[in-house]
Write a structure and sequence with these properties.
The protein is an alpha/beta fold. Helix content is about 50%, strand content about 10%. It has a single domain (about 1-275), classed as Collagenase (Catalytic Domain). Pfam families: Peptidase_M90.
């Protein structure tokens, strides 16, 4: 898939993003407008390549406009700005960072949340069925679904650390190296020399140790709030579901409300900086 993606970049020239459209996109997303000039320029050019490689479709009568597609592209590309390549090495060119998202092409936009039927087995083997409202869903090796209602509110919801686009695209990063039958664990491929480690196994152990400590602490805080009326955590309690959702929810907050995130999770801030700021910015 990465070979096909590289061919697209070579033979399909991205069209420049109109200045007015870019300005409107940044105005609606203050956490992107706050980036410095160099990062905004790299983000804009990454978006041009992203829009060449991905195909948008609207469901239930929704018509996808250029502004809608660009808003999603800008938020999806935000985590890539200073990231290492998916193989753990520094990319040669910035567009190569889109290899993190090379296992799918389609992005389906729903007007609002989608109701999905779920079935789970508890520890006793009893089957429980329920309906879940989804603002987004990332499928391993398949398309990505987003609720436009939730995407459109990204600017306002940044204050509470919410961002459905970043959430689902981070899931895609987490899923990228999965083997058949495996489930995401909130542990994407780490860069070489992560936090001074020498071996991938050592780096992964460091990552998992910090993530486990914070995940368990968050679950305890949610439990205390629900059972004893304690103060609820700042983040969405959906992060308590499992390690993969904890990773995705905390990444939302890391990118859209960094200062508050650092106050709540200082050790996670250092861990995520080591991951998401692992490579020098490259030209596009």
């Amino acid at each position: 898939m990465s070979w096909l993606a590289s061919l697209r970049r070579r033979w399909r020239r991205p069209a420049p993003i109109p200045e007015a459209l870019w300005r409107d996109t940044l105005a609606a997303l203050p956490f992107l407008a706050a980036l410095d000039g160099g990062d905004r320029a790299r983000l804009r050019l990454l978006c041009q390549h992203f829009l060449v490689e991905k195909e948008f479709s609207g469901a239930n009568g929704l018509v996808v406009t250029d502004a809608m597609a660009l808003s999603i592209a800008a938020q999806a590309c935000r985590p890539l700005l200073h990231l290492h390549g998916p193989g753990g090495r520094a990319p040669r060119r910035a567009p190569d960072l889109l290899d993190w998202y090379d296992d799918f092409v389609g992005i389906v936009l729903q007007p609002g949340a989608v109701l999905a039927r779920r079935k789970v087995h508890d520890a006793a083997g009893v089957v429980h069925e329920y309906t879940e409202a989804l603002a987004g869903e990332a499928m391993d090796g398949g398309p990505l679904m987003l609720s436009w209602e939730d995407v459109a509110s990204a600017g306002e919801r940044a204050a509470i650390g919410h961002n459905v686009v970043i959430h689902e695209f981070v899931h895609k990063m987490d899923m990228r190296e999965l083997q058949a039958g495996e489930h995401p664990q909130g542990a994407p491929t780490l860069p070489q020399g992560f936090l001074g480690t020498r071996k991938p196994r050592e780096a992964r152990a460091r990552w998992q140790r910090v993530m486990k400590e914070h995940f368990e602490g968050f679950r305890e805080a949610v439990s205390m709030a629900e059972r004893f009326g304690g103060e609820p955590p700042w983040l969405d309690d959906y992060a308590a579901k499992d390690p993969a959702e904890f990773f995705a929810v905390t990444c939302e907050a890391y990118f859209v409300s960094r200062e508050r995130f650092g106050q709540e999770f200082p050790a996670l801030l250092a861990l995520y900086d080591a991951f998401f700021l692992s490579a020098r910015p490259l030209s596009v």
